[in-house]
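The record is kept unedited without comment:

——
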Amino acid sequence: MTFIEEASVSLTDVAKRAGLTVDEVKAEAAALNMFVGEDWKHQEALSAKDAFVLLDGSARRNMEHQNAFQTHVAALEEWQRQRENVRREAFGAEWEVSVKRGYGNSASTDKAHAAARQAVAEYEARNPEPVFAEPESRLQTWIKRVKAGAR
């Protein structure tokens, strides 16, 4: 095991404080991608900063928020890709039809843009843009409780 040079807290102390077993603390630290090393007594330990955020729950909240945001970004990118495909297909189809009917390039392009705008509007009406549901912070929750208690 690697020695932790900065301030560290043994897993035993973290487990006592959290009311968990050492193995549960190790599993949570691994799930949160925290480094478990050795302190000066050669006990398994976390850095003091990692121990703090593990115990107060902010590391788990931050990880869950990051995962939710990454999922949202992926859904948004897929929605934008599909929307752009709808626009391109409508534009291309209308432009080809207009050119075959004998319209010039400018007139065909105007008609194609109008068709693309209409297709995008219909797509957006059928498939609304994904919206990220921001999780409530502890401060927001606390403010709501204070306001509810003041009534």
